[in-house]
Amino acid sequence: MDKTFQPAEIESRWYQEWESKGYFAPRDGDGAYCIMIPPPNVTGSLHMGHGFQETIMDALIRYHRMRGESTLWQVGTDHAGIATQMVVERQLEAQGVSRHDLGREQFIEKVWEWKEESGGTITRQLRRLGASLDWSRERFTMDEGLSNAVQEVFIRLYREGLIYRGKRLVNWDPVLHTAISDLEVVSEEEKGHLWHFRYPLAGGEGHLVVATTRPETMLGDAAVAVHPEDERYAHLVGRMVELPLTGRQIPVIADDYVDREFGTGCVKITPAHDFNDYEMGKRHGLPLINILDDDAAIGGEAPEAYLGMDRFAARKQIVADLDALGLLEKIDDHTLKVPRGDRSGVVIEPYLTNQWYVDARALAGPAIEAVENGDIQFVPKQWENTYFAWMRDIQDWCISRQLWWGHRIPAWYDDHGHVYVGESERAVREQHQLADEMSLRQDDDVLDTWFSSALWTFSTLGWPEETPELAKFHPTSVLVTGFDIIFFWVARMIMMTLHFRNEVPFHTVYVHGLVRDAEGQKMSKSKGNVLDPIDLIDGIDLETLVTKRISGMMQPQLAAKIEKATRKQFPEGIAPYGTDALRFTYYSLASTGRDIKFDIGRIEGFRNFCNKIWNAARYVMMNCEGQDCGQDESLPVELGLADRWIIGKLQETEAAVERAFENYRFDHASQALHEFIWNEYCDWYLELSKPALGDPEASEAAVRGTRRTLIRVLEAWLRLLHPLMPFITEEIWQSVAPLAGKSGPTIMLQPFPNSAPEAMDSAANADIEWLKGVIVGIRNIRGEMKISLGKELTVQLRNGGEDDKRRLQENATFLKKLAKLSDIVWLEEGDEAPAAATALVGQLEILIPMAGLIDKDAELARLSKEVTRLETELKRIAGKLNNSNFVDKAPAEVVAKEREKMQAQELALQKLKEQEQRISQL
RNA sequence: AGGACUAUAGCUCAGUUGGUUAGAGCGCUACCUUGACAUGGUAGAGGUCCCCAGUUCGAAUCUGGGUAGUCCUACCA
């Protein structure tokens, strides 16, 4: 074995082995366990958030696989309609070609080409993380099978009246030329203006003033509204005003939606270009006057003078024209929320179009109930509130997108605009007995990508066929996801699955936090703070990292800033840490919090942990390979104190890890393992094993017992650690297992360790704690008195009880070795004690003679520090015990515990004071 | 505007049902290349558990109020 752990070669070797041997596919087992991967964008690449999520799923999957369950981790990607189409369009653009030049069919071919070319990135990355996904079942939302499922669902919902088509206001992206759902619109506060315009009253005696943030929409105004109880304007309700620039007259109406306090209290109403105005328009029977075209330039029923003008140019023009007419009252600065498309970043326009909708309200009922009655549980539970809040106020879901890349809507129109929904044109003709010569035209639109991902849990298992996989693995066990897509995806999956399968898609939703950078900032390409998990695994030099971060940016002007920040944060680039260290870091961060700040310091610590594991195994192998380590069960075995202790501690750790897995507390699992392996197994057990193995007087059975414990405990914790650190555990396990009497081709398929409570050994724990106490006491004096470790000491023990005496007798060898002692003397009562530095373990006094070693003042200082500490502590306890309320009301055992504590501390204090006095007299 | 979450060591975070001397990792200080490991060892320093009040014998933990921050939902033209 190498002296340091070198992950790179080990990782690729083992992943290939596992995959080629088919270990990732479900095997027969007790019960089924299934996780569906939240499908990443097929043309995308993994970021830190993915890494975190995949790593958590892999731990769960490996854990349940080792527990003997029939385990499926379904892999797949989604087609990411808008994102992918945008990428391909941009590529074409670079060649000076638009998608319209190519035409729909050719364009889609190009997209498929791009998918073939770039689709491997994400799956390669998943493999690098060690994800044990069943690649043989890989699916893609645009696959034939999944497309069939999408079509089936659309048709059935349509026939049930749960999908309808309607002309409504939608969120229109004027650059992407498509409708998007409410969830795809992000509103951020931006600085803008509030323009005040005078609208003259028809008849010519005066005007009223309206305020607007979007002046250009005035071309489409259909009314001016005031509050019904607003006395200032009561006399105007029912009158008409002249709408400037349009030659139209519009009425003044009363509606209590109007806020009297805001602006002038008069609101211009533009039903075709504002969601609230649309609703008000419906209440008052106002006309919908569209004044935009698909590019959000002025169009529709707008006055000719403005036709074709871009909306923002028109805004300027209209303000200028009104000003010229003397109708501009004033312009105020105003901060407002501007809705932008989450993909394009452009300002979204409410725009009147024909779209397809899902009646979400109807589907929401059962979906709410499933969470209320516990069929589905969120972890942490608080996310259920988020879910309920959204579901109880759910809006109909606009599912049509004016894109080419996606599932085309299976609807055909005749020349009269009648719509026919069915599997194909032929099916539609047959069903409705339409003559062959009658022309039919398929709907141009495709479905929202989330429409197909909503079917993910069952469509990937073969639905609408009733496959054996569907029967076995559905409902799935747990969904692992971020809270940012509870609405987008989780809620919609629950609705669709309940409707079509009459069962939940999953029993548990584990909601994890979002990975942020070290400053707590969200990682994003435009901020230039993204980290590629693969770069943490393989390492990356600074120049490559900088280039990677500033290339292909939407806003190249930020490049300099990003370069500077990157050079500052990673002056040396990023070192290679390996997959296991990265994974363990993720787990250690997976607590219940919402934000996960990724600190590079953590991963370095866990890389060191990997090295520790590697070297511990190296030590064990050096001592066990080619030796008798108890493989022959018929030979006698004697277990020493340390052996019994570490076996017990292993059981405790196994129980803690299991509990952590059951509660999705991966941070607890990683902490328990880290603590056990480093602070117990390595720091103490391995050190204790050295004198045990080196003891010339030890019996063969005892040495065999130590070797057997070394190797078996190691073998067990390798399995315990495997779901979190798959590679290093596999590599080591291969050589360790045979010596521990285990065999098998891979650790992956070995049973997960079960805690055996009967092997926990409280007597051994107590003895080891005593041993540690004595050693630490001596080391402490050594440390503070600057006595080098090379100097062997003689210590004297005094005032101990029977237990102390026994423990000393049994462990003198260990004490000598670990505390570097030449001799230990037990002082009987009456024996003369020299001037010495003192440590206490319970009642037992440990004396280190000062002669020539220890400075009087230094020891006095040390003692006085200790005395002060004890006195403070004693005062606190005494205060408690002198309080009759405490003594009367607190549980007897708590009081007894405090009394005990006080007695022990008093005794200790007394001894230290005596010691202080004695030394000061020297 | 409504709601949620967070606040613990210099930094990143644990802290189960109220009773610990409030913990870990990283960082820091001192010493140490001893045969698994310097990606290491040993020892150490470091905390007003955001603030105020309350409940309680007892509060980092429970309740109320406040402050700061983050996020979500809905928005006033």
Automatic annotation (TrEMBL):
A motif ('KMSKS' region) lies at residues 522-526. PROSITE patterns: AA_TRNA_LIGASE_I. Residues 853-922 form a coiled coil. The keyword Cytoplasm applies. Residues 14-599 form the Aminoacyl-tRNA synthetase class Ia domain. GO terms for biological process: valyl-tRNA aminoacylation. It is found in: Cytoplasm. ATP binds at K525. Keywords: Aminoacyl-tRNA synthetase, ATP-binding, Coiled coil, Cytoplasm, Ligase, Nucleotide-binding, Protein biosynthesis. It catalyses: tRNA(Val) + L-valine + ATP = L-valyl-tRNA(Val) + AMP + diphosphate. A motif ('HIGH' region) lies at residues 40-50. GO terms for molecular function: aminoacyl-tRNA deacylase activity; ATP binding; valine-tRNA ligase activity. It is an enzyme of class 6 (ligase). Residues 643-796 form the Methionyl/Valyl/Leucyl/Isoleucyl-tRNA synthetase anticodon-binding domain. Gene3D superfamilies: HUPs (3.40.50.620), Isoleucyl-tRNA Synthetase, Domain 1 (1.10.730.10), Valyl-tRNA synthetase, C-terminal domain (1.10.287.380), Valyl/Leucyl/Isoleucyl-tRNA synthetase, editing domain (3.90.740.10). It holds the Pfam family Val_tRNA-synt_C. SUPFAM superfamilies: Anticodon-binding domain of a subclass of class I aminoacyl-tRNA synthetases, Nucleotidylyl transferase, tRNA-binding arm, ValRS/IleRS/LeuRS editing domain. PANTHER family: VALINE--TRNA LIGASE, CHLOROPLASTIC_MITOCHONDRIAL 2 (PTHR11946:SF93), VALYL-TRNA SYNTHETASES (PTHR11946). ValRS has two distinct active sites: one for aminoacylation and one for editing. The misactivated threonine is translocated from the active site to the editing site. The C-terminal coiled-coil domain is crucial for aminoacylation activity. Belongs to the class-I aminoacyl-tRNA synthetase family. ValS type 1 subfamily. This is Valine--tRNA ligase. It comes from Mangrovimicrobium sediminis.
